[in-house]
């Protein structure tokens, strides 16, 4: 998932090196933000980047997420003994 972070940084910094393509950076923020909101609403514990495609395709692909993975792991440990 390091590649995912590097791609996001490259897309988000598009206005710095290619101002005519600055809409790509804004689109990346919208996509990642929407993915995180959808993952939160659905209770999806996988990588938030896959939340939209998993929802549309009715799949449950699981990929480790470098950014929010430690938070998901800590939350799982805290709620392990509780019944959902």
Short summary:
The chain has 84 residues and is mainly alpha-helical. It has helices at residues 2-12, 14-17, 22-42, 51-57, 69-78.
Secondary structure layout:
Blueprint: H1 2-12, H2 14-17, H3 22-42, H4 51-57, H5 69-78
What does this structure look like?
The model has no long low-confidence stretch (mean pLDDT 79). It is built from five helices and no strands. 63% of the residues lie in helices and 0% in strands. The longest helix has 21 residues, at 22-42. It has helices spanning 2-12, 14-17, 22-42, 51-57, 69-78. It has one domain. Helix 1 (2-12) packs across helix 3.
Give the key terms.
single chain; 84 residues; 5 helices; 63% helix; 0% strand; elongated
Task: Outline the biggest β-sheet.
Answer: none
**What would the principal axes of the Cα set say about the shape?**
elongated
The total number of structural domains is: 1
Radius of gyration: 15 Å
Low-confidence stretches: none
Tell me the structural class: mainly alpha
Task: Give the DSSP E fraction (strand runs of 2 or more residues).
Answer: under 5%
The rounded distance between the terminal residues' Cα atoms is: 29 Å
The helix content is 55-70%
SSE ordering: HHHHH
Number of helices: 5
Number-wise, the strands total 0
Mean pLDDT: 79
């Amino acid at each position: 998932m390091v590649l995912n972070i590097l791609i996001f940084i490259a897309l988000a910094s598009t206005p710095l090196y290619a101002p005519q393509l600055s809409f790509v950076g804004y689109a990346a923020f919208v996509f990642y933000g929407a993915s995180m909101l959808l993952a939160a609403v659905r209770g999806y514990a996988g990588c938030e980047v896959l939340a939209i495609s998993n929802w549309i395709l009715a799949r449950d692909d699981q990929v480790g997420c470098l950014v929010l993975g430690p938070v998901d792991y800590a939350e799982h440990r805290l709620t392990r003994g509780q019944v959902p």
